[in-house]
Amino acid sequence: MTAVPVQTYARVAGVLFLISAVAGGFGEFFVPLQLIVANDATTTASNITSSELLFRMGFVAYLVEAICDVSLTLVLYVLLRPVSRDLALLAVFFRLVGTAIFAMTELFYFSALFILGGADYLKTFSPEQLNTLALLSLRISVVGGGLFFVIGGVAYVIQGYLIFRSGFLPKVLGVLLALGGLGFVIRSFALALAPAYASLGLLLPTAVAGLALTAWLLVKGVDVARWEERAAAS
């Protein structure tokens, strides 16, 4: 039995999922749509330099998302370890590695500011070259993150399986989360092997699973009696 009531962990997980979703939506979708123009390095560079604060806020959103992801790793481990401590711990490793890789790829996002910053050591490059390098750095951050979504996807599959078997959370949430994880995995391999088929539609199950799990944890939480029964048995 944990010192903190398990229902509190469930509510905290719901709040963290919600914050992560809002921060991720802002940093990964809203800001890029406002500033990044595919295949147009000059316009992208102009947008970033004229809206630098918005660009920096996008990076701050990534930081918030990463903090939530690390915190969720612990909270979900506590919630799911009565089902299988070993599998819950394996999901912890995948989630933490995934977050670390995510952080590394976002360095390429932030690097665009240095490339466009006008420092003296960059004067050997023409403005057109710097604009192209900035867009390339942004593309690496996007594609790099997409390629390594496979790590987080495996964690989702494991946690989906644990939820399905738990008895203290609805099986359908486990199915949705596992399908969402598979979407991550499939898209990552598609990006590596056949980019033309790496549709964002493959991430739709992940969005549905995230919304459903967030709403359930915030509103219903877990079946405390069943969780305690599983915890005692483990």
Describe the structure.
- This protein has nine helices and no strands.
- The chain has 234 residues and is mainly α.
- It has a domain at 6-142 and 207-228.
- Helix 1 (6-35) packs antiparallel against helix 3 (52-80), helix 1 packs antiparallel against helix 8 (204-219) and helix 2 (41-50) crosses helix 5.
- The protein is elongated.
- It starts with 5 loop residues before the first helix and ends with a helix.
- The model has no long low-confidence stretch (mean pLDDT 93).
Describe the structure using short key phrases.
234 residues, mainly alpha, 9 helices
Summarize the structure.
This protein has helices spanning 6-35, 41-50, 52-80, 85-115, 127-147, 149-166, 171-193, 204-219, 224-233.
Give the topology.
Layout: H1 6-35, H2 41-50, H3 52-80, H4 85-115, H5 127-147, H6 149-166, H7 171-193, H8 204-219, H9 224-233
Helix pairs in contact: 1-3, 1-8, 2-5, 3-4, 4-5, 4-6, 6-7, 7-8
Put simply, the count of helices is 9
Report the portion of residues in β strands.
under 5%
Which H/E pattern describes the elements? HHHHHHHHH
What is the SS-derived class? mainly alpha
